[in-house]
Amino acid sequence: MSLFDLPITEIHKRLSNKELTASDMVEESLKRIAEVEKDVQAFLLVDEEQARERAKAIDQDIAVSEDLGILAGLPMGVKDNIVTEGIRTTCASRILANYEPIYSATVYKRMLAGQAIMIGKTNMDEFAMGSSTEHSAFHPSYNPWNLDYVPGGSSGGSAAAVAAREVYFALGSDTGGSIRQPASFTGVVGLKPTYGLVSRFGLVAFASSLDQIGPITKNVEDAAYVLQTLAGYDELDSTSANVSIPDYITPLTGEIKGLRIAVPKEYMGEGVDPAVKEKMLEALKVFENLGAVWEEVSLPHTEYAVATYYILAPSEASSNLARYDGVRYGVRTDSAENLIEMYKKTRSEGFGSEVKRRIMLGTYALSSGYYDAYYRKAQKVRTLIKQDFEQIFAKYDLIFGPTVPTTAFRIGEKISDPLQMYVNDILTIPVNLAGLPAISIPAGLVNGLPVGLQLIGKHFDEVTILRAAYAFEQHTEHHKLRPMVKRG
Amino acid sequence: MRLSKKEVEHVANLARLTLTEEEVALFTEQLSSILDFAQKLNELDTEHVKPTSHALNITNVFREDEVIESISREYALKNAPDQKDGQFKVPSILEG
Fold first, then answer.
1. Has residue B16 been placed in a domain?
2. A154 catalytic per annotation
3. Which is the catalytic residue, given A104, A136, A158, A178?
4. What's the Cα-to-Cα distance from A108 to each of A79, A111, A337, A437, rounded to whole Å?
5. What is the ipTM of this complex?
6. What's B12's domain CATH number?
7. Structurally, how many domains does chain B consist of?
């Protein structure tokens, strides 16, 4: 058994008792990376020296201090769109291939203050655009359950690293499902917090009104502990919510009697793989046995969410990515006669096809003559989607459904058809449009590949989804299954 | 919604991208099919619906107008592809 299979509280106890050191944890991580990383390829950069030094410093702290953070000594992966001072941050893009940030993201600082140890930067779809991690400019990542399959995206590297036990936990970002979908595909826990709960300062922006950082962990308890450290107001982020942060740990009792669950018929209908639906019905039975009550409801605008997202997100992206012009940072073309040509060549050489496609789409949707027909229209439909959720949450505590309608797809299967890739996110996208919190937790295997169950909560009610997810986990074994890291 | 190659080239110019012939052909096809898909939104009557730009009601953030230390010029230029005399260097804009 790996040290990484021990509960977070047990690691904490052993570190406090000096039976275990932070250096042991780092060596465990590096050993596992040496074993499986050639197959999984979850990382863009592994920083052994920095990790070993940090571990040594933490071990010295432990020797003299009683006050040990709960995340102390835990090796983590950090998605490569979260800036880390002095450590290369590329967003899996050629245009940032040589970028060394001069400051750190707030979440990274909070993790360091919590005494976690960064092992490396994890692979992703370029600028977080994609659902498979095949759109990384450097290399794809692979699903540890079956290396012929994608790990999901865009936080595919983070999810694969946790699933393959290369790190204890990881940070990801979720714009349309980029934490939850890879968590679902790799059989781990992925939590997308309420928009504004976790600072986005230092997250390289993709679609600013939708992006949110969150934890990817092996179980719900770990997710609650990481969120406890991540959450909180940040004056450096103008969209950070100034709300009081509750205790996420104490409510994890396993008790959910009387909990009111809404099951949208749109989340269980056509398009959902029958075997995935079967797992959902089994999961509902578990909730029923625990004393929760559920009813079928309707979120009538669900079918419009993907179209809404693929107008809004590229529009914001086209604006956010205008900053990559080869002047202040990143890579610059080596052959340009004048300034405009330099911009164009730099961007054309630096961005991959999915990024170009979305920049073009966004530029078109925002251009004069089309703004009302596309961008403004999508903003209005966003209101309808948000109102659907508000009506359900007036009566229910949470919403239940699969995270993704299917299990992971094969490498290369959807890469040439962007629209087919986009509709894969139909059950995760509405959550981002409405800014709600949601979690994906393991709900079993279909043909050897994991299925994820999604629980969606009210704004800032992470407590309820964590409490329900924990209760489910306590009465099932799905989260204890481990991938073999093999082909076929 | 069928885009013409000319429209794709125009949008690429606005986005400061140069596309190869192959890319123009591919994006004409792909963007047309994505915009077709987006036509679905027209099924909904949204005349009296207010647009949502952010999921939460947020207000601006202000701080006291205090003089604080900024990053050094050297640090700000650290990632610049080209620089001269403490400034970002780009190809000349004016002739002569």
1. yes
2. yes
3. A178
4. 10, 5, 40, 21
5. 0.95
6. 1.10.20.60
7. 1
